[in-house]
Amino acid sequence: MKNYFPCFLYLLLIWGCLDTFEPEEVFAICETTSEDYFNPTNKSFIPPSKSTFLEELCVPLELGEDVSFYDLTADKVCLLEQHLGQITDSLNTELCESGFTKDSLDNYYYQYFGLRMDEQEYILVNAFHKTEVDSFDWKREAFIEKCKNGLNQWRVLFNVEELSFSQYRPHSIKEIFYLPSFPYEKIEGCSRCVAIKDLETFQLGNQDICLLKRHFEKLKAEKSVGCFYKNYLINFNREWLLQYIGVKKGNRRWIYINAAEEPFYREYNFYSTFPSTSCDGGESFWGVFFDLDSLEFEGLQFNAF
Predict the structure, then answer these.
(1) pTM of the model as a whole
(2) What pLDDT digit, counting tens, does each position of 43-99 carry?
(3) Does 204 share its domain with 283?
(4) Do residues 278 and 258 lie in contact, with contact meaning Cβ atoms separated by under 8 Å?
């Protein structure tokens, strides 16, 4: 009599692979005719043990208190990919871009995380441009870029039950947006020649921020003026927290950017919650105006050392 027990074990092994972290097996069963279907060429499941990367994000997700991670299964991933192609319009709006198309989505590598929050299940999609991958083991480790400008990495949450996306986040710089009611004279410090208190404040809109981001590259060539550190450039190889404030005088409107370098804004938590600056600190603290009419930067100033 033939012994079929080894064959039975082999079949069990194959069945187990279909529902765990082997992309070649799992994604092969995702079949759909949906126009929004997008099946990334390069993707991986990341197990719950790697979820601690959320603590390192410079642009955090808005998560509830009761958050846990779970092992993804093929059926949930298929639900995601049946709708993944529809996110291009939202990416263009939320990330202030216009070039995201369904074809361009395949320029990214994708990591999927199973996340439970408020009694609902989500898939966290962590996408990063293929030019960012060198020797990094992206199939097993969560990829986190340094907090610099650029859209080489973005993230989004997919609600498995509602089949909807939310919380589009670029992983570029940590940004804080303030309402006009804050006492903005606090950001002047004692070493910048800036008179914020003489200006009115207004609520920034998404269109204003998008104008700033589309012209942000100009800031790399802007040289400092003011009382200290004249003719210096900003070092964008460092990690920054940026505070955006809408200010105006008459018909002219600006966005004032108040910046603090890591680790200062991590050591002093008030930088994340309140517009303020240090009296000194040199090149680790700076401020600059962005003119919403001319679309140019002006008045870059560093703190005294």
Answers:
(1) 0.60
(2) 888 888 877 777 666 566 777 778 889 999 888 998 999 998 888 877 777 667 666
(3) yes
(4) no
